[in-house]
Amino acid sequence: MRIRFGCEMGYEFTHPTPLIARLNAFPAKGLAAVPPDVLRIEPPVPVKTFRDTFGNRAVRFVAPAGAVSLHVRAEIPDDGGLDPVVPEAVEHAVEDLPEEALPFLVASRYCESDLLSNEAWNRFGHVAPGWARAQAVCDFVHEHITFGYAFSHVDRTAADALAGGRGVCRDYAHLFVALCRALNIPTRYCTGYLSFIGEPEPHGPGDFAAWTECYLGGAWHVFDPRNNAPRRGRILVARGRDAADVPLTHTFGPNRLTKFRVWAEDATQPHRE
Q1: CB count, 10 Å around CB of 125?
Q2: Model confidence, pTM
Q3: Of 64, 61, 49, nearest to 13 (Cα)?
Q4: How many CB atoms lie within 10 A of CB 54?
C-alpha cells in the first residue's frame, strides 16, 4: 500500500526571520516518495537542505516579513503492517552496547533520567530485563498521564509529567524515555506522521505524533506510550534525545501561527480535508 502524508503550516512574520524546518520523512533506503517529498514555501525563497547531528533531513531559509506558508505533499510505500512486537528482544549490558546507542542513555533537556533513577528502579527493577521491562514502563506511562491538548506546555519535562500526570504525546514520550534510560535501556525520542488506518472511527484531527525507540536485541524498536498499541502508517520525520533536538519548525524570531493541518492516510482513499 501507499501512505499519503503531508502538512500545511501558515505563519505571519513581522520581519525577515531565519527558520529551520523538519517536516519531510526521514531518509530511508528504498522508500522514495512519489511525488517527491519536498518542502514547498510560499512565497518562494532560497533554501538549503542538510542533515542534522542525528541524520534528520532539515531545511533552512529566511522567511520574509508577512504571510508565509509551508507545504509538504507526498506518498510513500508501506507494507501495511503493524509496528512489530518482539517479546524475545533482550536487554544489553551497557559495556556491550554499540557506540551509536550511548548518547541515548544519558539525561537530556526534557528527560531527566538522572533525577528519576530511584523512581525507575523502584517501579520496574523487579521486572525481567528486556522487552518485558520496556513494555511495563510503556504501560505505566500510558495509564499515568491523562491526555489533553489543553495540557500542552512547551517547558514540561519528564519529571513534571510524572508529578502532574497530564500532557500530550511528547510528554508521554519524554517520561518513557527518561524512565527507560534510568534503567540503562537506550531510548530515543521520535516525531512524525501517524495515520488512523485500521483505527475505529471517529478519528480526531490530524496532528504530528511523538513516540520512542528502544535499543533491544541488537535493533531499535518502536514503543508508543501515548497509544500503547501497534499502529499502521507510522512515518518517521526526525529522532533525537528529546523534543529539543527535533523541533518541527525552529523560528529565530517572533511569529504567529495562522494555519496548521497534518494528514497521513491510505492513498487509495479520498483525501480528508
Answers
A1: 11
A2: 0.95
A3: 64
A4: 16
Give the separation between CA 119 and CA 166, rounded to whole angstroms: 18
Instruction: Kindly report each contact of residues 95-102 with a partner whose C-beta sits within 8 Å and lies 24 or more positions away, as own/partner.
Output: 97/186, 97/215, 101/186, 101/215, 102/186
Q: Break the chain into its structural domains and give their ranges.
A: 2-79+248-266, 94-245
pLDDT per residue over 212-253, tens digit each? Answer: 999 999 999 999 999 999 999 999 999 999 999 999 999 999
Where helices occur in the chain by DSSP H, the ranges are: 117-124, 131-144, 158-164, 169-182
- Helix axis angle, 117-124 to 131-144, nearest 10°: 110
Nearest to 251 by CA among 61, 77, 100: 61
Report the C-alpha gap between 131 and 9 in whole angstroms: 38
CATH 3.10.620.30 fits 94-245, yes or no: yes
* Contact present, 174 and 110 (Cβ < 8 Å): yes
CA–CA separation, 231 vs 81, rounded Å? Answer: 8
Number of residues that make up the chain: 273
Q: Which amino acid is at 247?
A: P
Residue where the block lists cell 520581519: 15
Phi-psi group of 37: left, alpha or beta (phi > 0 → left; psi -120 to 50 → alpha; rest → beta): beta
Grid coordinates of 106: 544519558
Q: Look up residue 22 and give its amino acid.
A: R
State the Cα–Cα distance between residues 138 and 206, nearest whole angstrom. Answer: 23
CATH of region 2-79+248-266: 2.60.40.2250
Residue 228 has what DSSP assignment? -
Q: List Cβ neighbours of 203 (8 Å cut-off, separation of 6 or more).
A: 196
What digits encode the pLDDT tens for the residues 126-166? 999 999 999 999 999 999 999 998 999 989 999 999 999 99
